[in-house]
Amino acid sequence: MLRAKVQILGLIAIAALAVTLAQCSGSGGTASTMAPTPTPTPSPMPSGLVIPAGGGTLTLFTAAQASGYAGTLTVPAATTGGSALTVTTSTTLPAGLPTVLSRGRRPLQVTDTPVFYFSLTLSSTMSWPTTPSFTITLPSAAQSGVSYYFAFYDPTKASLGFQLTAVGPATVSGSTLTFPATSNAVTLTGGVTYWFALYYTTGASPTPTPSPSPTPTSASAGTTNTIAGNPGTAGSSNGTGTNALFRTPAGIAFDPSNAALYVADTGNCMARQVTFAGAVTTIAGNTSICGIAGIFPTGIAYDPTDNNLYVTNPVQCNVDQITMSGTITSIAGNSQQSDTPCSFGDGSGTGAHFNAPAGIAYDSATADLYVTDSGNCAIRQVTTAGAVTTIAGNPGTCGQSPTFSDGSGTSALFNHPEGIAYDPSNGALYVTDSKNCAIRQVTTAGAVTTIAGNPGTCGFSNGSGTSALFNVPEGLTYDSSNGNLYVVDSGNCAIRQVTLAGAVTTIAGNHLTCGQPPTWADGSGTSALFFSPSFITYDSANDELYVTDTFNDVIRQIKP
Predict the structure, then answer these.
(1) pLDDT of residue 421
(2) By the 8 A CB rule, do 157 and 176 touch?
(3) Could you report how far apart the first and last alpha carbons of the chain are, in Å?
(4) How far is the CA of 404 from the CAs of 158, 384, 457, 463, in angstroms?
(5) Is the pTM value of this prediction over 0.85?
(6) What's residue 344's pLDDT?
(7) CA–CA–CA angle 214, 218, 224 (5° rounding)
(8) What percent of the chain has a predicted confidence (pLDDT) above 90?
(9) 66, 70, 67: which is closest to 57 by C-alpha?
(10) What average pLDDT does this structure show over 13-24?
(11) Contact in structure between 32 and 161 (CB atoms under 8 Å)
């Protein structure tokens, strides 16, 4: 899915996404190679449209002109100029756009359905102090039990692939969907055609009833419990248990000395601390500058020596250090505000380049970080001083066939790797090769072998080696006590155990109901339900796992 999932971003205005995406072709979302200029057959649109410099509401298209869909755009007073506007619409996929949309780092669930497309082209560049908002009126009343989103396409990044990012959910009233404005300033470039795809997803709206006591002190064998967050309710509140709210949490790390968890609360652009009792506090980040001027954490790792956190930032395409006092410092990568963002290059500090970095792991013996550079299909080593080298994968062939090969260095091929874990006993790395649906071992010298999964064949099956199947695996963690891996099989809504010999079993979650309501339930084995879970960490002292259940907006505990 690269699932890719944010997920659903905290930026809930299409125009705000235009800023972010215009600045960075890699993000939490997958960069897909496609034609630079979509060429749909446009429906007749109003002539003489002009976005007023003084602000106001503009009808983009009417139901008679757009197969029953109507759309309006509301803009504040512009800081620079007015502009003529060209609009096209389509109810079928326009030529040159991807058949699989992307929600943050993941593609849509199988239950997500695109229904309508439109594009906007300004004749000249315009800027606003806050983002515009828009409404879409459907041909009939909105469906019950679904949520509506937009995926945004930036065709200016053809050399690196279209940037795809989801926004929403919309506020629904009858047949009208409203995507509200945010307080972020925004600039849309003249002459650029921005594409939008409206889709709906089942299972995201119904809010399951949380368990009366979501803060257990221990879990019985095979049991999944919710320790923090209110299932199905997104927000940014600190608190305990269901009073604490998250928005599409992703990375998670364990701190044994303080018996605490650290969570990359991606949709809120925050790093949060979670105690085992479910008490949640914010360490760093600010929703008001989400993803643009602030952090956009996805993967997270804990350095027990210096008591710091390290996060991957796929929007600004860098690696950040966060102190426990909340100080954020970029140690490697050239942020989205530079002239050369989101590309590839070894080097130090801003001389190094990433493209949608995802997972991150810390080696306490050497004080090195290891990062899955998902958009470059590579595994990178990063010192805490910011020196970056590539140990495996070939960025030059990322996304091109063939997408899989064992081998060493650049002869080893990945297809958008996501999670990464370090095994101190063997000095090895383990990686979820997400779109190859395989689990790989990578030595720090760059030798790559496949442990489990049938590369290129995604599905669900327990078994050994290539007889075991995964569906877009994401996070993984290493159990130093028993020498096992635990993998978040995100597309199957399941948690899998993988031995280093390649034997795969399922310990929690039900792939048969993945993405279908209800999407959340505590319980044992297959009675526990997840909704597109992302990352996982292991508590060796208590032999417990902790999982970010991303689309349920909660943190889960599992006793393997």
Answers:
(1) 98
(2) no
(3) 25
(4) 24, 30, 11, 21
(5) no
(6) 93
(7) 55
(8) 52
(9) 70
(10) 32
(11) yes
